[in-house]
Write a structure and sequence with these properties.
alpha+beta, globular, 11 helices, two-stranded parallel ribbon, single chain
Amino acid sequence: MTQWKSKLNLSDDADLHSDEATAKLKLGLFSYPVLQAADILLYQATLVPVGADQLQHIEFARSLARSFNSHVRSRPESGGNVFRVPWPALSAAQRIMSLKRPTQKMSKSDPDPKSRILITDTREEIHAKIKGAVTDSEPGISYDIDKRPGVSNLVDILRNVTSLSLAPEAIAKDLENMTMRAFKEMVADNVCQCLEGVHDRFEELMDPSNQTLNIEAEEGAKKARRVAIRTMRSVKNSLGLESFCASSNMWDREMIRESGTDNTIAEDSNTTIRYITTKEGTADAIQEALAGLNKQSSQVDEPETTKPQ
């Protein structure tokens, strides 16, 4: 991924095998794309809303899905494709730049709070931030990302918060005789108007007496777990495995019961690992293995075999 070089602060033509690159390498650089792909594929996502800078990660997830499906498709027990191949969902505003460093994208992690606009910002804060946005001393308004990145960024913001369907170059042409001060006021007014309803809705949802988010989060978690259980069962079956395991935090009894499975669960309370068996006799083998682990660790509690209530 080309993003690896930017994360390592290397030039585009740098060699990833060089001493300079390897000295900066961290596990997260490689594990993050894999974990992100797992989050997408586990829940059978079809469209993933991302920014343009995340397209490589989505393509990586698509590649993994196609590769796995191709690998297991020839197995008679696979039943066809296991993962859906996701597609990126890009908004018209694919990349908005920082108000203070217009050659870098706007980010909530930027240490300068004046570099970004938040939906929680008041009208006064939005006006102050855009008024202080970095532009240049050249008169008039024009659109040139290379020569006038700050002004061009404000034109892009104006285009995306209004219903203007013109190209940014055409918008800048219509405003070419406007002063920078008046232009910034115009951009700020339109941003405030665009975010007005969003800001009000945010405040409503964040009210401590409003339980909408808690209810939606709880119901959404249940739905997501059911999808995850089905996906993992499909993955294991496609590989011909007889059992699969996961941490008890995720594979709890309630979710297993809701999924409608009649499989046996062998639980070890010390290791907090649960095995959902799919063939007769596997539970006994698991119990025996867990008992051996307990003896090795000087723990005498025997695991119990129970069924979902």
